[in-house]
Amino acid sequence: MKTISIVIPARNERDGIEQTIQAIPKLELENMGYEVQILVVDNDSNDGTGELAKKAGAEVIFEPRHGYGRAYKAGFAHATGDVIATADADLTYPVEHIPRLVGILEKENLDFLTTNRFALMEKGAMSFPNKIGNTILSLTVRILFGLRMRDVESGMWIFRKSILDKLKLGSDMWPLSHELKIEACYFNRCRWKEVPIYYKARSGKTKLVNIWKVFFTDLLHIIKKRIIR
Question: How far apart are CA 97 and CA 213, in angstroms?
């Protein structure tokens, strides 16, 4: 039987973690022939996120070192699935559509599938400065790497675990999102596709306190990645 690991990083996401887990269509995935591992990475929460995730039926691991990239690396290391799917714990990404996305991965024999939040974005789901920043980052990746992605910073991906050993993932913070895509789709020439998804307003407070600091960190990382892998 095939296995899928759904990896969800979470730091102080008590407002959305249970609903996120409950929205995962586990039965539908099982009917597709997948054993399902729901893996929440508690990134040093102090609001009971980990306990709520366990209560909702997820396997929980703890990564005490803060960082988006660190949380994902810890999750990938514990994932047992042949396929890995990712999402945030704040109800923004449509986890209910994971079976459809896995179906595309299978049908089109892809290695890596990423998603485009801009295609079907709920009003108010992303601030205007954030939209501008993400658009510039995606344009930069198109120019420097030739990857025709509309949303290079999207955090919902479906990919085969077998590609992980080939990827050089150096970032422990937000740049991991575009670094994963660049590594898979540019440096390793994986078969990939970007698919439109619905993107909703988040539950709870945003973690991006300084949007422009994150933007320039991401931009410099993309440029450096082109010069020095």
Answer: 32
CATH code for the domain in which residue 97 is found: 3.90.550.10
Instruction: Enumerate the β-bridge partners of residue 84.
Output: 5, 159
Cα distance between residue 173 and residue 218, in whole Å: 9
Task: Report, in angstroms and rounded to the nearest whole number, the Rg of the chain calculated over CA atoms.
Answer: 16
Whole-structure pTM value: 0.96
pLDDT tens profile 140-165: 999 999 999 999 999 999 999 999 99
Q: Classify the phi-psi angles of 79: left when phi > 0, otherwise alpha if psi is within -120 to 50, otherwise beta.
A: beta
How confident is the model over 70-88, as a mean pLDDT? 98
What is the domain extent for residue 175? 2-227
At 82, phi and psi to the nearest 5?
A: -70, -30
